[in-house]
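Two entries, shown back to back:
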Amino acid sequence: MKDYYETLGVNKGASKDEIKKAFYKLAHKYHPDKKEGDEKKFKQVNEAYQVLSDDAKRSKYDQFGSADGADFGGFSTQGGPASGWDFSGFQNGSAEFDFGDLNDIFSDFFGGGGGRREARRGRDISTEVQISFSDSIFGTNRKILITKTSSCLSCHGSGAKAGAGIAACRTCNGQGKIRESKRTIFGNIASTKVCEVCLGAGEVPKEICESCKGKGVQRREEEVSIVIPAGIRDGEMIRMTGFGEAVSKGTTGDLYIKVNVVPHAVFKRDGHDLIMNLNLKLSEALLGIEYPIQTLDGEIKVTIPEGVSINEILRVRGKGVPISKSKRGDLLIKLNIKLPSKISRKSRELIEELKKEGI
């Protein structure tokens, strides 16, 4: 039996506020949308919180015990006799009771089930695209082909033959669920389950679609248009809601696209700024020069002032990564002064004269 207190990491005397804080912390940690999320644990945490946050449900849960051994009206889950009941029959398999699915029993018993249909959801899928450095800065649109389970093109997901229409499900009489009685250690317990024929929809096609055999979905190749936003970084993920795999009588999953950015030969990114190196001759560094530079926006001319230092950085505003529609980062130009490995006799004489002048 599940121990909801242990699931949330709180003791049995925990206050509602402590239970809520524990739930928020674990739900944030295990949420399926997070990179390190865990859908199974997220559902377990949510189930525990739904019971322990409700006073009536918590009271019933506390009355019937927890995973460390519960007393159900004279029945001991520890396996030994309690209040005159002999459990030896359960151990050798001769007992007539059907334990069934205890999870479903408690869901109905505590009011958490009630035959409500849990929404069906298609599988999330992922793929990768490769873009240029320039496209990562300014954004771009891409089209890709993905083979996945999608809504049937013939019946548009209804599962019905064109013009045949829909009829009420005879199995559940259009209710979408079936009521049944289970014989358990608590006695006969009435419960409901989703109709397996109509999957909870309460209706079925009069004639099934020949393309998808009535499933409403089929596996096929589909073209997907991707909008890659300006300023995206290498390795970032784009989530496209409803572009994953479809499922009959349910919602479509999501598509996750990992963006791989090809490195640039000149520019590197630092936040919203772009950085590049510029090699200057010694004479250019001493006397200054107007230098043409090919940026991602096209060619510009940068004025290198006289007497710049090695590793000095020049800033060109507004030529970096877009921050908003009207604002961009800057282009940072790191100046490298290239010293000659060999000099001529004339150059040496000129340098000697500079040396005498203290330069």
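entry 2 starts here
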Amino acid sequence: MWIGYALGAAVFAGLTAILAKAGVRNTPSTLATALRTVVVLVGACVMVLVVGSGSSIVDLSPRTWLFLVLSGAATGASWLCYFRALQLGPVSKVAVIDKSSIVLTVLLAVVLLGETDDLAARLIGIALIGVGTYLMIERRPDPATPARGPWLLYALGSAVFAALTALFGKVGIAEVESNLGTAIRTVVVLVMAWILVAMKREGRALRTIPRRELWFIGLSGAATGASWLCFWKAMQDGPASVVVSIDKLSIVVTVVLATLIFREYQSRRALVGLGLIIIGTLLMLIGVV
């Protein structure tokens, strides 16, 4: 069952990147992140009410609170980097770099969480994913897109914080119902995002956000919420390294939609890299099915 949730997380995460790209064309990225997080929190709270897990919040241990808060803080940092990168760079390349966090996540899961089952398959899998990611980062991208620049640094920052998110979250979600854990983490992200909006004085831009972008920001928040709810349910039941690997298949959805909608060119080299990422992920999955 957790594999199904992980696949659902991948599909919704792929949609998130496309919808978010459409929603940050003119809207400040930090403000867009803050608005999206409101939608995510509403969805998470609705699920908490549906499953009736809200009352268990008083029973959470200090250790659970600590790791949920740390996971939320890492998520907030990852999101802020990710959506700034989306605003500045090509969505397919930003998404690929962000998904490279799988390499660091798997290594940390092996070392810190002791997930050593089928270790050889996992190491070969992340090697293929790492090579595939390298191939997908074009040496000669579309002439309209700079090969290097701030977007690359933000995308790398997003990947590092995403890896920390998964590790902290795996520990924090162990003793809490997954929807409640998602809601708590989302509150941390929301507070971080709105503090930064206030510090950067981006709140005044609320009145000038085009209605079309506002819709896309809201839809990206809904997709993110659905992805999170699936992802953390899968994390609760399955091995972190494999769940994160399946989730990274969202890059397939993102690349296909970016090519169709934003006309982002994908070279033969990039397609080979995408193929390696898929093969590496499937290799890691075979060992646990």
